Amino acid sequence: MRKMAEYAESSRQQMREAELPVTMRALRLTGSGLLFDARYPRPAASAGDAVVEVTLAGVCATDLALVDGYKGGYRGVLGHEFVGQVVEAPGQPEWLGQRVAGELNIGCGECSLCRRGLGKHCRQRESLGIVGRDGAFADYLRLPLANLHRVPDEVSDEQAVFVEPVAAALEILEQLHVAPSSKVVVLGAGRLGLLIAQVMALTGCELTLVGRNPDKLAIARGWGIEGIEAGQAHVTLGADAADIVIEATGAPSGFALGRELVRPGGTLVLKSTYAGESPPIDLSHIVVDEIRILGSRCGPFAPAIQLLASGRIRVHELISAEFPLVEAVAALRRASQPGVLKVLIRP
Ligand SMILES: [Zn+2]
Ligand SMILES: [Zn+2]
Questions:
Q1: Where are the beta strands (DSSP E) in the chain?
Q2: Which among 74, 185, 199, 218 is least buried, having the fewest CB atoms inside 10 angstroms?
Q3: Nearest listed ligand to the Cα of residue 271
Q4: pLDDT of 186-200, one tens digit each?
């Protein structure tokens, strides 16, 4: 009986796989810029992998930075924020049909960093849509099953596409103790800054969001988060105002303002990555003022999914536009315009 059931399962899986097309639609970053490709090879899963049919994907600043040449010229399918459905999982049929979000870093599994649980920092790592691995602006993507997280029914696709950036915001709390008495300033009221501000608000800290765009600050005010315009930050807050400054402007200029606002002995958290030169830093001032500088990148998915499910992190106000996959080039163009928040791509 067991043999027959296994046979039936494997032939079901083969049938499903046979139904999947050989090629797919994808937004590629090539040497001559963005290219919508209607006949790009569909990824196939090997053992331990899954192929996910993408339901919805989100454009983030990293995608735009890659187009500008960040990471020294990534070539391949862009996109790393997604929700989708598992359509291929060799030997693991329990995954088929599951709705999932996925972590983007794939370590080699063998080096000393991977063996110490630091796979996201593996020097040989691939990162979905960023380094060495085709991404989510496509009909299908491939990831190890270990990277996938089931998305519960109470989290909509529009919410689930924010799991990755909410996890990135939560990473700050994994790294740093934020006390209710902490004075925290978040610089940058963009896609990520607005999520970071919400995550920081959960701690009960004394929070100020600094941004350029009054409309975005108004969104934060709607959530009960105090927002002030960047030009007013010195006047309103004063120098040395913050115990913790989180720089999420996505621009090199954010560092200087962060440096002015953080008090001696305070912490400056850096969240921005961008193409091009980093700002000059007066390291002596960092030493004399005993400033802690903390780099912060990808974070934990499970609590991000829980927070979205609980409704304590709001995302609907952050969605500026949705494009079909065939218009993905236009979607990235829109996402790069000032004032635009999250742009979604639906295959
Ligand atoms: Zn991102
Ligand atoms: Zn490794």
A1: 23-30, 33-41, 49-59, 76-77, 81-88, 99-102, 105-106, 126-128, 132-133, 140-144, 148-150, 183-187, 206-211, 226-229, 242-247, 262-270, 292-295, 319-324, 342-346
A2: 218
A3: 1
A4: 999 999 999 999 999
